Amino acid sequence: MRSILIAAMAMVFCPVLALAEEVVLKDGKVLFGEIKKQGDDIVLVDFMGRTLVLTDQIAEIKDSKILVAEYEEMLKLQGDKPNHFNLGIWCWKRGLRDESAGHFGAVVESDPDNPAARWALGHVKVRGIWVTPGVWTKLPGPDKTWVRYIPEGAKGKLNVRQGEAPPHDAREMLRKMCRGSADEKKSAAEALAGMPEDEKREGFLLSMEDNASVVRSAAAGKLVSFKGLDVAKSLVRAAVADTDAKVRSASVKSLAEGQFPEAKDLLMCGLTSKNLNVKINAIDALAFFPARDTAEALATVMGSATARIPHANIFVGRQVSYVKDFDVEVAAFAGIGDPIMGTAIEGAVLDVKILAMEVSTVRIQRRAAWSTLCSMAGKDLGQEVSVWRNWAAERFGKG
Known about the structure:
This protein has 399 residues and is α+β, with helices and mostly antiparallel strands. Helices cover 48% and strands 21% of the residues.
């Protein structure tokens, strides 16, 4: 147990920091992630998914060096007994996953059943012990039993194996290939090559849920050689909702190059999502599926992104209660009648229109759809929906 604590502390105090930047918006909201420029807009890839903001919404930008300096200063101020839980949350909010895992690991070392830290680390409790989903864990006792929890359906399923050493696991081998030493990478590649295809398939699907983006990206690349609706759904989910741009890119590439006839339709379903990040990622992904229906769907998005102005009503007034009558029947044997209360309300209703947020959303959707259409056509045909529909009909015909 002490070795675990030492490893966790080493991860905390000798971190390999992920790229992070802080964007402070004029409305006070703070976003964290990797900033990329997209024309006049700024694309912020944060730890909860891609966020698009406009330059006129930004008040201040802090680059990764400032955040690293703030983190190191916090560690110095807390001394030999840092508050690992608070530091874990601080790092988690800013997308610093390795540092966050190190702090939550230290919390678990001192408090093994801490539910918040276990949740942050992605652990679940199986047969009384905490395990990482998809990873073989040895049960306590002399019977040399290994279990692996697969998060599938409402309750998931449990794989059980007997043996001295942990069973070969495609997910674990892939993790070693991505993050291990040279010797570990070599032995993992050999073990992976000798595994049955169904075990590799299951392991790669599990790897799509791994905490490390490099592992998810590698798994997405491996899944290109497999078939099945479950594989297609996993890749589509990563393509539109993963927090890392490289994972989304690898997933889209596998969908485009693999044998997934349902991929295009699944991605087009993302165009109707209420989540702006999912919708924008789906729009970007459809650039790899040029066809008449995808082009027309994108043209529809570009044309239908009209400024719907939401309304909100605010009432300003007062309410007065008064006695308007007495119930004498109830009060037949009482000294006074039972009072019947009335209520009078007076005031004004204010009608409020919300403009800025909706208009920004509209601009983002229009720009994304237009950019993808230009990528398909190899040229800019302007902002008219009818022009793009005519181009799609001429380019792809009735197909």
